[in-house]
Amino acid sequence: MNILSLVLCVVWAMSSGYFWYSPQLFGKPWMKLSGLTEKDMKLSQKQMGKTYGLMALFNLIAAFALQSFFLSANQIGYNLMLVLMLLILFTFIPTFTSNLFNQKPLKLTLINVGYQFVSFLGFAVIISILG
């Protein structure tokens, strides 16, 4: 287990999420498709410490799990393919199915799952390089 790679994975997830859901990228359409307003977002800021703490913890757990799945830190192609397959199987399909039955727009699914793809593919690269 490489602690540095786990910490960098958490930093990657947090920073990529910050940019992914920023107004310059997908923040505005995500808010609209989620039915959230600026007022809702300001109210939720009161809980941001808890939210970010839990996000960091769960990303640490995810990075640890991925690190244990990888056969070798030096096999970046294998690691990227494994993460891609895991994301499709355990993230895209369940999210898509749930959003389909909840009558959520496909665009919302793509925004949310897209962040997970960026985040976890980054994990694969970090863990592959640092071990």
Q: Could you state the order of secondary-structure elements as H and E? A: HHHHHH
Q: Rg from C-alpha positions? A: 16 Å
- Total helical elements: 6
Describe the sheet with the most strands.
Answer: none
What portion of residues is helical? over 70%
Which structural category do the helix and sheet elements fall into?
Answer: mainly alpha
Describe the protein's architecture and organization:
The chain has helices spanning 3-20, 27-34, 38-44, 48-69, 76-101, 106-130. The chain has 131 residues and is mostly helical. It is globular. Helix 1 packs antiparallel against helix 6, helix 2 (27-34) crosses helix 6 (106-130) and helix 5 packs antiparallel against helix 6 (106-130).
